[in-house]
């Protein structure tokens, strides 16, 4: 899968940098010419010359066409200035050997539908948000494709394991035991490959896994004694919510929800603690200013010392001791 991802990224980079700045200029001219003069119009057909015309023939055709399209000859005609300027650029390109050679390539092979990210960026000038949205959609789509390929691979692997388990239980002819298809058979399936040599030269067998074959079904025994059915449902199918961007949004949302619930619980605990602290302790005076006897009849309470008694009151949310004489 990593190799596939690298190849896809490399292909995108190759396409993005396939065309030069001069190629992008040709693409713009072709698009503008077809939009103004009609679909299928080429540089040669607009000038009225063949694709094999010489440089002198192109120059003569340009002078004749420029007289026809000059803005002074076409007052009030829409896009007269743009058409006249476009004619000069096209004639200059065709009279240049390199420019004409490059245009002839697209004239013979056709202008590509995909012209690279650089062309579309310079043409439409998308903002940062548009670029990020495009990249998110593109990478999420690639991630979904990779999920689909992994799912197909896992389904094939599971079916291979089921076939191997039934072959070990029934034999190479894949015929169920004579006592019926529902008879369960326990087998040990090697899922770690064949025997191999370790660093010391000792033969080490592959990873053996217990399997139970009952009829056409294959099970994997669990430590608690239960059996897990081995079939295609064990493979994780592709899902949009597991693509990297949606998975990130879901994870952040869960974290924020849990944090909000923890803050609410802490506030409730703090409020309950304040209510408990605000209650006057049993057997103490509620008057912090003095004047009354803070003791009651009966045996001395814990906290009395040398004819003095400690009365607990609240002051600013904290307990303080007020010592009064009898």
Provide a brief overview of the structure.
The chain is α+β, with helices and mostly antiparallel strands and 326 residues long.
Task: Compile the SSE list and pairings.
Blueprint lengths: L1 H15 L4 H17 L5 H5 L7 H15 L10 H16 L1 H13 L7 H8 L3 H43 L13 E7 L5 E2 L5 E2 L3 E7 L2 E5 L5 E3 L14 H35 L30 E7 L2 E7 L2
Antiparallel strand pairs: 1-4, 2-3, 4-5, 5-6, 7-8
Helix pairs in contact: 4-5
Overall SS class: alpha+beta
Total of DSSP H or I helical runs spanning 4+ residues: 9
Question: What is the molecular shape?
Answer: elongated
Specify Rg, calculated over alpha carbons.
43 Å
Largest sheet: 4 strands, antiparallel
- Total domain units: 4
Q: What name goes with the CATH superfamily of the largest domain? A: DnaJ domain
CATH class of the largest domain: Mainly Alpha
- Work out the number of β strands: 8
CATH topology of the largest domain: Helix Hairpins
Helix percentage:
40-55%
Q: Which oligomerization state do the chains in this entry correspond to?
A: single chain
Poorly predicted tracts of residues? 284-297, 302-323
CATH architecture name of the largest domain: Orthogonal Bundle
Strand content range: 5-15%
Strand order of the largest sheet: 1-4-5-6
Transmembrane segments: 127-146
Domain J: 42-107
Keywords: Membrane, Signal, Transmembrane, Transmembrane helix
Signal peptide: 1-18
